[in-house]
Amino acid sequence: MHRIAVAWLAWEMTRSALWVGLVAFSDLAPAAVISPIAGAVADRLDRLKLATISQAVIGIEAAAVATLVATDNISIGLLVALELCSGTAASFAQPARQTLMSGIVPRADLPAAVACNSLVFNVARFIGPALAGPVIAVFGVAPAIACNALAYGSAVLTMPMLRVDPAHRRGHPATASFIGEVREGFLYVARHPGLGPLLAYAASIGVMLRCVQELLPPFVERNFGRGAESLALLTACFGIGALVAGFWLAARGRTAGATRIAIRAGMLQAVATIGFVATGWFPVGLVCAALIGASASLHGISVQQLAQTAADPAMRGRVLALWGMITRACPALGALLLGASGEVFGLRWPTLAFCALALAIYAWGYARQHRIEAVLEGPPDDGENR
């Protein structure tokens, strides 16, 4: 609800795709700087406390934005600054929360748990926009953002109820300087023959394709000539597609074949995005949005499953922080680039160019698929991995 409301607020205030992109960038971009640091922090401190404090900051930011909007004291510059604060806190929350998962479920259940975690997120992506559209249309932007503040307040109150294995609740004792541990995380991923190329592929796909979802208000108005209700319907279709894909991966419950799914989902997402931006007919846009949501979910869950299971336990926080950086900073960079180019060329042709680059990246990933698979999944067996 918050994302839809903030994007719509930025569009109403400026009528500029560039500003909408900047607001998305301000929420997501801090991950580029903060995530590696947050990963090292999560590998040293009490992860439950870190997650709780980070989520409290996000809730306070949402309450501040809602209050400023309700009192008509918001400006586009202030909105960008507040979203930067929220994005910084989220960069700390992500690795802390993800690393807790291995302390809640047995290792054998971890792939299914990762999929279930993503499934819950995608249920929220479906319900949130479905609620946001009518709330914004009837009551305005402020109540939709206030709902986010209430939700994070609930999260802060319930996080201490989690029962986490003490060995996974706190990271390892300091083994080097703090900056040294951040550097170790980068080097570990860069030198890993499976995680390195897989995360590079995911980062490239994130820049080229995920940015479309961050710029939906301009697409809704310019491509389809519709308003806030249609924006919520379109975003709900993204969530429905992601939900179906998440259910399938959760039921699948294993990492065998995850590399193949992750790489080929990038190609499917590029094709679906081409269909989304090439059409002006809203029903076709809805179908393509569902396919984009499904392919993005297949890609993201599979990469996260592999990162959780393949990473050394002592490095897990830093690896998942880099994954968080990819999921937040790369779409932010893409949204900024697409928003800026959209001001000059319109949104359709730059997006199609991004999709063409994404297909070239898929060809690169496909050529390396078997080598990545061999490292992250072990030798394929004849039945299960096909």
From TrEMBL:
It is found in: Cell membrane. The chain crosses the membrane at residues 17-38, 134-162, 231-251, 271-298, 347-367. SUPFAM superfamilies: MFS general substrate transporter. GO terms for cellular component: plasma membrane. Keywords: Cell membrane, Membrane, Transmembrane, Transmembrane helix, Transport. It holds the Pfam family MFS_3. It is a multi-pass membrane protein. The keyword Transport applies. PANTHER family: INTEGRAL MEMBRANE EFFLUX PROTEIN-RELATED, STAPHYLOFERRIN A TRANSPORTER. This is MFS transporter.
